[in-house]
Each structure stands twice: as structure tokens, then as C-alpha cells.
Amino acid sequence: MIRPRKSDFLQRISIRYTIFIYFTVSALVMFLLIGVSVYGRLTGQLSATIRKENQAVIDQVNLSVDAYLRTIMKLSDSLYYGVVKNVDLLTQAEKISSEITLLYDNNKDSVSNIALLSGEGELLAAVPAARLKNDMDVTREKWFADTLEHPENLHFSMPHVQYIFDNSENQYRWVITLSRAVEITEGTSTAQGVLLIDMTYASLQYMLDNIPLGEEGYLYLTGSGGELIYHPRMQLIDAGLEEENIDAVRDYRDGNYQEIWQGRERNIFVKTVGYTGWKIIGVVPEQGFTLNEVKTRLFLVFVVAFFIFLLAVINAYISSKITAPIQELEKSVNALEEGELDTQVYTGGSYEIQHLGRSIGDMAKRIQTLMQDIVTEHESKRKSEFDTLQSQINPHFLYNTLDIIVWMIENEQKQEAVKVVTALARFFRISLSKGKSIIPVRDELEHVRNYLTIQQKRFKNKFSYRIEAEDSVLSLASLKLMLQPLVENAIYHGMEFMDGDGEILVKAEKKEEDLCFTIADNGLGMTSQQARGLLTGETRSTSGKGSGIGVKNVNERIRLYFGENYGLDIFSEPDEGTTIQIRLPAVSYEELMEREKRI
């Protein structure tokens, strides 16, 4: 019976008095242990401070290295988009060399070589190097093959002695090579090549030398796979990395940790350099974390005095205040459990409860952010899928068009052939539109006009067409490659098997706050069920003709870019023709482009 009575007695004591009793007993014990505990705390604080300072140094070095690499990447962009991409190699080879020389002269303190190579390994331009070494076949080099296989990436090599070019001035210099795939223009054709920039290793080494990390600390730089790029003792490049625990560093992202390596306790600081995946690693021996004796004594006196003062007031205060914040925090947590992620989490009370409340609040915000990111990622993925689909060009259409041109030339219809070639060129120019998905209405109408011009020649004027548009709508925004698939359906499936002449009307007009397009034909038409099936994807063409961009995809692209209130409506009856109406918001193209820039 004793144990239950004791349990009942403890249950009858309020949390306030329980805290008072335990805190008083603990305070007496703490007086005996205060010296050790304070010393340990000071040591931990000092260690944390030094770690923060060392981490700040590593972060600053990371910013310097990142800025240096971004400068080289911007130079690469300037060479590609400002020189290589805009110059015809057949007629303007000297211009390429002169502009590369100009950019090299502006960056020669950090750049050793700049070269442009063809996809077959031929040296097209190089500064200051004059030629490749006699026995050098760059197509056999791994970096050359990797660059062509992954044209979307910039490729950074490990440090090495320059071995490609025959140049007595810098052939023994250490460099890091940046390579990227480029598109080279040669007359009317394009070919793939490689742009190469040799960064001087000394420029990178200058930023990393003599970085203060305590008396015995140092830092080194590795590649994403653990390969050594820089170390204070460069002989380790050849001798190996037995002094460094590369496996642990390679698997660690950012931050700091402690390790015992080769019998020594060390503090390791790691920071990843942006685009490259390189890692800056700081190494500081544990012996570098020492206490200042005078400051320690002063702090001990302060802690003892403060502890005695707190002991007099905290016993009563904490017992009455500690439960209220916990209850408030519990209410917030219950609301979050019910799915109310917008709930304002309670952050009052003691430091621990405030910290816990802020952590829970931050967690709820991160959950909201992650949920939004998932939605945004899904939207972006859908846009990418539609943009990829829209960029496809039916090879049969191109083949048949070229076949028409050949036939016209052979039959001495040169003027007609010129019209078809001009229409085809304009068709492709607008199809590309510099990668934009939104273009002005005038360009979209011009695109479909060129398409109809080509198809009219192909079908030997079996159909006629009219394009009508109000002047006020020509500058409004339209979705690219929206009309052509619908007109294509009208030709292939609406009137290809008609006995008489076909007619197609394309009309653009503004109705109140909407931009409306109408595509009408006098073809074979379809049932209402087939029309609905086009919008849902249930009705599909089995002829194998067309661009592959169906009515359903056009409708989904419109809704994806402009909202669910816009899209297609199909009106058709068998043997009565088909009319498709498109509704978009009437927004100025310039205004929409400015809005996207601000976003």
C-alpha cells in the first residue's frame, strides 16, 4: 500500500511545486559542479565561435572562387553568343580570330588560351596558340567526347599542364580547361564544334593561398568526384591524398564536422562551389580551439553572481509561467495536425519553447513551400512537354514541300518555286521564334498564311483560303503554333477527299475583353461526338498525316498558359463543314512581355 500512496501524493503536487523542489535540489548540486560546467560551456561557445569564423572564411573564399568561375563562364557566353554564333566561318574567319583576340587581351591575366575546334577536331581559331601539336588528335580526348555528348553543360577539367597547343610561351603552364559545345555557321549550314578556354591555374591559386584558418589550419579544393584541384602542398597531386580523408568529404555537402584522422582530432569545414560541384575544404586541428584565461575568469565571476540572483527569483517565476507557453504551443500543434498550415504558431514563453515554436512554424512554412514547389514543378513539366511537342516539324511536310519545289524548278516555274521557298523560310522562322511560346497575332497569322501557301501548291489549288483580321488585334498576344494544327486538320481530314473545291477561312477579331480566332472549312464535317472526342483526345487520326500536335494538345496549351476560362469550341455537322473557335485574353504582346520580365 505504500507505493500507491506515494504515487497519489506525487500526483497531488502541482507542476509548480514539483519544479520548485527539483530546481532547488538541482541548484545545490550545480554549485558544486559550476566550475566544470561553465568551463565546458565556455569551451563549447568558443569552439562554436571559431567554427563560425572559420566557416565565414570558407564562405568568403567560396564567393571569390564562384565569382572567378562565373567571370570565365560569362567570357564563354560572350565568345559563343557574341562571336561564334553570329559569324559565318566561311566568309568571316578573320573576324572570329580578331574578336577572340580582343576578348583574350581583356582577360589574359586569368586566361591562358582560347580556341575554337570543329567537331572533327580541326583547330579553327586560337589565341595566343598558333596550332595544335603535331601528334595531337583531340577527338580521342575524353573531355572532347564528353563535351559533344553533353552540349547543354559547361565542362571543367582538373588542373593539368597545357599539352594541346604548340606554343613555347605557355606550353608548360598549369591550366584548368573550360569546354562547351557550340554551333558553328558555315555558309547556309551549321555544324557542331567545341569552344575551349584554358584558365591559368595561378589565378585560382592566388585566391586560395595564405587563407587564415588559425595557426595550423589550411584549406584545399577538390572536384565533385574528390579529385584534388588545389592543396598548399602541391606535391600531393602526384603523391596522393593519404593525409586527407577524401571519402568523408566527398559524401558531405555543406557545413562542418569533427573527425579523427591518422590519430589527430580535426575540424573539417566544407563548402560546395556553385555550378561546378567543386568543394572547398578547411582543416583546423582541435588544438587550435583554446580559451583566453582572463576572459574565462571574468566570465566565471559573472556566471556565479548571475546564478545566485536567478536562484532567488526563478524558483517562483518559472513554475507559474512554464505551463502556459506549453499549452499555447500545444494548441498550435493541434491546429497544424488538422491541416491548418496557415496557423500562427505560438512563440512565447522561455527560449526553448520560443525556439521550438519557431522551428515548428518554419517547418509548416517549408511544408507549404514544398507543396507549392510540387505544383509549380508539375506546371513547368507540363509546359516543357507541350513546348517540346510544339517544336516538332513533320518530316513528311518538309519532304513534300521540297518535292514541290524541285518539280516547279524542273517545269521552269521559277517564280512559283521562289514563292514556295520564301513561304517555307518564313514558316520555319516563325516556328522557331527564338524559343518563345507567346508571339504577336500578326506573326501567328503570317505563320499560318505561309503554311496555307505551301499546302495550296501541294494540293494544286484544290482549295482556297482567306485570312481576315482587324488591325486592332495584330499587336495582341497569341500562343505560337496554335492555328497551324487546326488548319492542318481542316486540309487533311476535312477536305482531302472532297469532290469539289475546298474553302478555308481564318479570322481574328476582338470581342469585348477576348481575342477570338475562327477557323472554318466547308469539308466533310463530323458528328458532335467526334468533335467532343477531338477535345478529349478520344478521337485520333489514323492516317499518319499532320504535325502530331492534336486539337486536344492545342486546347490544353491554351488553358495552361492563359487559364481554364479559355480554349477551343468545335461546331460541326457531317457534310456541313467544321468551325473551330478559339478564345484568348485580349492582352497586348508588349505588355505581356514586360509583365514576364518583371516576374
Question: Which topology of the domain at 391-598 does CATH recognise?
Answer: Heat Shock Protein 90
Radius of gyration: 36 Å
The CATH class of the domain at 391-598: Alpha Beta
Strand content: 15-25%
Shape: flat
CATH level-four homologous superfamily name of the domain at 391-598:
Histidine kinase-like ATPase, C-terminal domain
Query: What is the β-strand count?
Result: 18
| Portion of residues within helices | 40-55%
Mean pLDDT: 77
Count up the helices: 17
**Helix/strand structural class:** alpha+beta
Point out poorly predicted stretches. Answer: 1-7
Q: Strand count, sense and closure of the main sheet?
A: 6 strands, antiparallel
Structure description:
By secondary structure, this protein is α+β, with helices and mostly antiparallel strands. Strand 7 (218-222) and strand 8 form a beta hairpin. Strands 1, 2, 3, 4, 5 and 6 form a 6-stranded antiparallel beta sheet that branches. A 5-stranded antiparallel beta sheet has the order 8-7-11-10-9. A 5-stranded mixed beta sheet has the order 13-15-16-18-17. Helix content is 50%, strand content 20%. The longest helix is centred in the N-terminal third of the chain and has 70 residues, at 15-84. It is flat, with a radius of gyration of 36 Å. Among the domains are: 85-204, 2-Layer Sandwich (Beta-Lactamase); 331-385; 391-598, 2-Layer Sandwich (Heat Shock Protein 90), CATH 3.30.565.
Helices and strands in order, then pairings?
Blueprint (H helix, E strand, L loop, with lengths): L1 H11 L2 H70 L8 H15 L3 E8 L4 E5 L14 H8 L5 E2 L3 E2 L12 E13 L2 E12 H8 L9 E5 L5 E3 L5 H4 L6 H5 L4 E7 L2 E10 L4 E8 L7 H29 L1 H15 L13 H40 L4 H16 L3 H19 L5 E3 H18 L4 E7 L7 E3 L3 H12 L7 E10 L2 E8 L6 H9 L14 H12 L4 E6 L5 E8 L3 H10 L1
Parallel strand pairs: 13-15
Antiparallel strand pairs: 1-2, 1-6, 3-5, 4-5, 5-6, 7-8, 7-11, 9-10, 10-11, 12-14, 15-16, 16-18, 17-18
